[in-house]
Amino acid sequence: MAVDKILMVEVNECAAPLTWEIKFENEQISQRDHPERKAWSDFLYKEVSKNYQTFVGASDLTTIIPEPSRYSQRQIVTLIAELFCGIALYESTWDPTCASTDVNGSDQPKDEASGLFQMNEADQNSFHTGTHYNFRELRTALPNIEAGVGIMVNQIKKYNKFIISKGEKGIFWAVLHPGGKYDKTNKILRLVWNMASEFFSSKFAYGLSFSGFKEPQPWVKWFMERLGMNEANPDDVFELSKGWKYTNVPSYDTIVGGKYAWCGMSLATALTKNGYNYPEYAEAAYSYVDYGTKCELKPGAIVVIQHANKNHHVTTFVEWIDQSSSIAKFLGGNQDDAIEIKDYDVSGNKNGQDEIIAIRWPVLA
Q: Average model confidence (pLDDT) for the chain?
């Protein structure tokens, strides 16, 4: 059987809305929803993504994002974007036209601190941003965002950290300067941490709420509602084993050990419970190779994986952790003997790793 060609969809938007888009109120600002600012967020997401390796290499990354290994690459990019959003809140109250007298005391337009991240024309050269915008351009959102990201990239390359404390060299933003007169670091970080916690809430569980997947697909939701059910819990074993009736071995009565792995059975259960067809021999992961219709690799897609030992596993795609290294999150049954989200290296059998051999989309019964 021919192996499906893998079509990958590049995602270029945040895993959750940044705070400057939504209704928000604190001691600094009171605002309504600003859906038009999604363009800011999408642009910021792309700028952070381009410099991902620099950002995750910072020595204080875990101060910004505690336990970063819990998050996908897309979530990490989003959380770093939210850090920038917090900086802009306290620098300009998210007013892209904001202008103020720079620390150099000059009130000439070219010298004024301008825009979301409060920089002037000369700062771009001093901080090696790679941009050359004039003051008028810096008072529009996207050029200012590009230059602002460039300032942080330069800072991390030079000082290896996001946050410059009082007494240390390299300070640009006084609001991200612990011990300084205008410091708002804790409040900025609280925005990031609040978003991080939302990734594990029902709304943004495991980063599943993103483009094309605003609400989990029904079969995915079935798995999400049963996350953590496992072979060690007798009640879970009893409940999940009911799914064998949807396979060609209906009398089989356990998910513990034995002859059959239960990844395909649990997926058949998730599908039939939501009105979808499933393969005749659903006890075999390989039976999903030609199930349904062929599709691109996108959230909710059914993925058949061939292990290096040529055994097979079937699961559903969540998102890339590091697409360049072919490491992604998948949600399914019989992953570490449980219904779990698990990271797989799908760089290929020739590399001694797992390989995706089919990507399919369910069809209604």
A: 88
